[in-house]
Amino acid sequence: MTLSIHPIDPVSSPFFGGVASGIDLTQPITADQAAEIEKGMDRFGVMVFHDQRLSDEAQMAFSRHFGELEFASNNLRDTKAQRLGAHIADISNLDIDNNVLARENRRRLFSLGTRLWHSDSSFKVVPAKYSLLSARIIPSKGGNTEFADMRAAYDTLDDATRAECEGLVCEHSQLFSRAQIGFGDFTDDERREFAPVKQRLIRRHPSTGWKSLYLASHAGTIVDWPIPEARAFLRDLIEHATQRQFVYAHEWKQFDLVIWDNQATMHRGRPFDAKEVRDMHRTTIAGLRSTLEEAA
Ligand code: OGA
Ligand code: MN
User: Fold this and answer.
1) Which atom of ligand 1 sits closest to the CA of residue 118?
2) CATH label of the domain that carries residue 98
3) Is residue 295 one of the residues assigned to a domain?
4) Tens of pLDDT along 237-283?
């Protein structure tokens, strides 16, 4: 087997969205293969690997080729016991006994925030590099994940808007993203934990040097701007960035692994029947520094 990486849609999207074949991620991979995948990520921003029946251990071992694993916040700490280990984010609609969460379940309602366009962990001082999402059980229909190319979004800004974005710093918090869907049921501890962090609006990719818009529904203020003006501006930027020509919609098959680069993309989950099981396990690679510390 030889690893090969190709565009998913070579005609309309030769530089965004790749598919890899000829590699079994349940087995150890070589440093050369990891470097090839990282090169593919630099070009494509999102990469799909089909038919990878990963255990959590194999997913973690593969993920560690790309950096340190983030601790999973696993949404809200409504129960002390978590279904999955400390480094596996539980992107499912299941409780600890593997029962589907009730419609009104607080953790479920909080997790609906992932239906808004976002970049993972932009609300952390050091935000995420890659996310790796493994589809263990998927619903019979719906539940796609969509990805937007934030390099293309930056490149296609008109000159005046690009100039206006130059040097701006946003504040990101899960309080802001959840407020957009009317979820405000936070404890005092959660409010403290979710205190806003600053990130540059235009960032330069640490590996490729390409610039992109660093947006997320977590962004709720622009430093030194009035809040309504900042929110209206950010909304317009997200609308620009998520035009269909910049978006790849992934239709999951069971045992797909999808990797995305949070430093150059946004993503969002799409709806599915809340009575069906959707069980996805995510490992997340921490970045190296705050965007404020990156080269401009
Ligand atoms: C994530 C995420 C969306 C989805 O795993 O970070 O936002 O479709 N997922 O599950
Ligand atoms: Mn996400």
Assistant:
1) 7
2) 3.60.130.10
3) no
4) 999 999 999 999 999 999 999 999 999 999 999 999 999 999 999 99
